[in-house]
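Input record, target 12 of the design panel.
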């Protein structure tokens, strides 16, 4: 029996992603096994090109390479052991980018820390994940005062230089915080090979070129921000504009004039709202948006099309180094997450997607029980995502296994499957399907956050009537047990996760 890697579906997937490039780009986007190899390649190929900028000062790829060597030396001088765990708490700035590269290429284990953490959380995380040191921006240093490990001001460097460590694809590179497939925050342990597989996958889309301009809006503590927003950019010799937060990043769009942006749907909504008020000039030279980390409504793709901007969708999870599937045919397959990236085996068991490959995590740090729930003895990662494939190999996410609603009549319903039908309407910004009570009986209910522009000048009653009509139209296409019986029109935004997804647990 042929393995997946010898099969026709693997070859189709490989052709989908890789045959779009000429020989030059194929060579530039060849898989590299370590962050060190990426740093060396980008310095050699893009030496004089600007790697990082904040619009006031800039760093070339050669300067970035050299500065990382100075940062590695400071880690040595601080006595942090090889393989030691280093937390980095920085906003997206030059320091964050350089420390990301210095820690990983020094053979130590990186943990990018969300800047929203308080002192108590930092203390707890430092103990749980066995930190050997913390590196922090000046504004966060007061939060680290109780730690009994070395704390380094992120602005510091060394006059000495240190070579990269002797590492390979199997060397642990980083631990990323994740809700995982079972909800509670955990630490997904990723090797250099996993990070680099994800980063290389982030380059595989139609229209990708060298030396794009992008703004690093997503924090490096988020796997999508680190892999797609940062490392994939280094792969292509892009100029990456740093910014302290999303608000300032959005404000930089007409100033820096990026050609490409890596975003989540919640930020896309904000940008499109501003563009509708200020006009196309606000979007500058933007012509490509790469969107993921949450379901991407086709409505957003259509809105960007009006400005001549293409929006591509992708799918992944932290445990799989972020990028599992990608779609560069959103104009013809707007609801699909595209094809599974090459280099992964996959199967579908009881509707759930399982993946296997060098992109899959080693496990959750110091949590064998949770690891065993999602990573079986044969190395298959149980994603928790329910999927379907069409005849051309395009994948569609139909829901989350853990979100299945068991109705009193015994029927199982995936709320995401129903939500997707509502997302196809230009009236719906966000929605949430859940079980609720109506007249004392358990029913399917939906909360809808409408698109403000769609109801400009309309009364609350008119808005509710239009959305009720939409609900009735969708119900007519559904079997009786999947029909929504209760509608709530939201006037306030949903509570959201760090990736700006609608939080099912906090409503």
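The sequence produced for target 12 reads:
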């Amino acid at each position: 029996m042929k393995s997946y890697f010898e099969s026709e579906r693997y070859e189709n997937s490989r052709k989908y992603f890789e045959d779009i490039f000429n020989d030059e780009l194929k060579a530039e986007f060849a898989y590299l096994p370590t962050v060190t190899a990426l740093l060396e390649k980008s310095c050699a190929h893009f030496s004089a090109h600007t790697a990082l900028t904040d619009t006031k000062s800039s760093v070339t790829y050669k300067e970035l390479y050299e500065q990382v060597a100075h940062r590695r030396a400071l880690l040595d001088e601080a006595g942090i052991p090889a393989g030691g765990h280093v937390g980095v708490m920085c906003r997206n700035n030059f320091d964050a980018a350089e420390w990301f590269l210095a820690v990983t290429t020094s053979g130590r284990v990186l943990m990018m820390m969300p800047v929203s953490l308080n002192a108590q959380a930092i203390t707890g995380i430092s103990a749980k994940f066995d930190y050997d040191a913390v590196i922090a921006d000046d504004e966060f240093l007061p939060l680290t005062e109780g730690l009994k490990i070395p704390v380094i001001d992120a602005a510091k460097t060394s006059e000495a230089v240190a070579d990269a460590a002797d590492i390979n694809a199997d060397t642990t590179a980083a631990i990323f915080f994740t809700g995982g497939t079972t909800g509670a925050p955990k630490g997904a342990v990723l090797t250099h090979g996993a990070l680099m597989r994800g980063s290389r996958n982030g380059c595989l889309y139609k229209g990708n070129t060298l030396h794009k301009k992008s703004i690093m809006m997503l924090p490096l503590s988020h796997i999508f921000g680190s892999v797609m927003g940062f490392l994939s950019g280094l792969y292509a010799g892009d100029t990456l504009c740093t910014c302290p937060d999303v608000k300032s990043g959005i404000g930089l769009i007409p100033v820096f004039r990026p050609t490409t942006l890596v975003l989540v749907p919640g930020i896309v909504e904000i940008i499109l709202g501003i563009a509708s008020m200020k006009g196309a000039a606000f979007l500058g030279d933007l012509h490509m948006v790469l969107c993921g980390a949450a379901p991407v409504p086709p409505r957003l793709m259509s809105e960007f099309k009006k400005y001549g901007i293409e929006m591509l969708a992708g799918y992944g999870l932290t445990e799989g180094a972020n990028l599992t599937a990608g779609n560069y045919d959103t104009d013809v397959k707007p609801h699909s997450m595209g094809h599974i990236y090459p280099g992964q085996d996959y199967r579908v068991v009881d509707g759930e997607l399982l993946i296997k490959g060098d992109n899959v995590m080693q496990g959750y740090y110091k949590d064998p029980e949770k690891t065993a729930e999602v990573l079986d003895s044969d190395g298959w990662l149980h994603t928790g995502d329910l999927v379907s494939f069409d005849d051309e190999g395009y994948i569609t996410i139909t829901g989350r296994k853990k979100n299945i609603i068991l109705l009193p009549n015994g029927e199982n319903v995936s709320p995401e499957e129903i939500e997707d039908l509502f997302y196809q309407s230009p009236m719906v910004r966000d929605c949430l399907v859940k079980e609720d009570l109506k007249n004392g009986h358990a029913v399917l209910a939906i909360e809808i956050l409408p698109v403000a522009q769609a109801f400009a000048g309309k009364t609350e009653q008119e808005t509710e009537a239009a959305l009720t009509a939409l609900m009735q139209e969708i119900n007519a296409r559904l079997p009786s047990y999947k029909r929504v019986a209760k509608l709530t029109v939201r006037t306030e935004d949903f509570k959201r996760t760090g990736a700006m997804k609608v939080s099912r647990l906090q409503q």
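The mean pLDDT is 92.
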